[in-house]
Amino acid sequence: MKLLFPLTLSITAFFSLSAQEKNLDKKPNIILIMSDDMGYSDIGTYGSEIETPNLDRLAKGGLKYTQFYNAARCCPTRASLLTGLYPHQAGVGWMNGTDYNLPGYEAELNDRCVTIAEVLKSAGYSTYMTGKWHVAKEIQKGEKYNWPLQRGFDKYYGILHGASSYYDPSALCRDNQLITSETDPVYKPTNYYFTDAISDNSVKYIAEHNSDKPFFMYVAYTAAHWPMQAPENAIKKYKGRYDKGWDNIRKDRFEKMKQLGVISPDARLSPSEQKPWETEQHKPAMARRMETYAAMVDVMDQGIGRIVDELKKEGIYENTIIIYLQDNGGCAELIGSGATGALAAYSPSLKPPAKGEIQYMNNPPLTRDGKIVMQGKDVMAGPADTYVSYMQEWANVSNTPFRLYKHWVHEGGIASPLIVHWPAGISDKNQIRNQTAHIIDILPTLQELGSAKYPIKAGNKTITPKAGISLVPSFANSPLIRKALYWEHEMNRAVRMGKWKLVASGKLIDSKKRRREYYSNDPWELYDMEKDRSELNNLASKHPELVKQMAQMWLGYAESSNVFPSPWKLKDLPNSTLIHDK
Question: With left for phi above 0 and alpha for psi between -120 and 50, is residue 567 left, alpha or beta?
Fold first, then answer.
């Protein structure tokens, strides 16, 4: 395979070639699409039964990566994606709710990093964003210094929070102004649904764009993050599809993934991490949750199709780079898993939000029209007055064939699809790339493709050097050269060096003083990723020197990248492995 421009030429030289399409002689437009809380096997071209024809077509017309990684959870991944740094280097080593006043745990992007938007804007790009931000704090105080427009974006429509109702999003924002779906002066659909709103506003930005400049657009869907909510007509499409249960769906995906080449032919399916479907007492409700989840993904894919159609309408499809990825693995969080009832204790004093009232709660107890929001195992997901997740059982299906989930840094928590589509720049179609890559590599890649410079300083602040590398060599199927990749989230930790992965689970522990005061960690596990990507054969006891070497590498990363000092103190428990004494 070859790029449509020689690797020995500069990117700028490529763009001086004669145009065969409108604006083909210009820098490429770039659309970066991220979905939320979806597993490695959740789109059709990676093994799913969910219908995603638009993403499938992008993969068929471009490149599909099998060993691409995120940072295990919403906030850290977004911080890494935007900055090309490991999460702690950008100040978001945990979530955005608590500022621990430590370099790695400031709960928002720090002033020692720059975003993709800031980098590309310096190279003449217009910059747009739609969807979930989730890397700022103090939203209710009106502190806007870390909102999208203050971090390089020209236009923004989305939520500043991490989750919300799809029918009445919390912390909904247009540019620098908090709004509601009812008071938005620009977007007034007949039936509001947030996923559609993200797609429609993305299309609007493309249609209104000044074609004299290239654009970068970051489309950060909340699909398919809880709550499981979708229009009824979208859910009907999947009625009955999941009645055979999670065990059979997982096996079907596993076989399809082998046929598609996104796992090796000799891959093994990790042991089931849920009870058998036959023993489930709430089958109709549990099947409905996955039907709703599938509908959420389907609606997102339809929106991506509308974005592609607008690119074609504007005559800029060929020279637009479209990248699709996911922020973490499937989510096993148990939202609405108990007895059926109101989300919050109901009281006659509870009032629905008034028209125009800014909603800050991601799970309000009442809808705006006064309906009580319900949770519980018998609740049939989908409508605005329900608030449930799809549960660990279906998350295990999403993460086929891997172990564990969002939060963890075993493969189930960090493996993501990566689709790269660029007709004018990449000649290979429907090709698989097996190079190991990471979310930190996206900014360096887009910086190179946009002929932009990465700053050394911003104002009087020294900018942290990029942690990632450009993926452009992999477009031509050349190797990506680096020593190792690293992870840490909630003291789940890992190192990937060549074919070897060292990984261990951690746990945050409450004390009588406060939540999450301590942490414990399990012993290191070692896996050969070429033979055992499902992490089933722990080789740590057979290669103690390699474990020691890679553990020291991880500690060096942790010291230099602001994992330490940690907000949590080590609590040495039986079978735990001391990794640090601070």
Answer: alpha
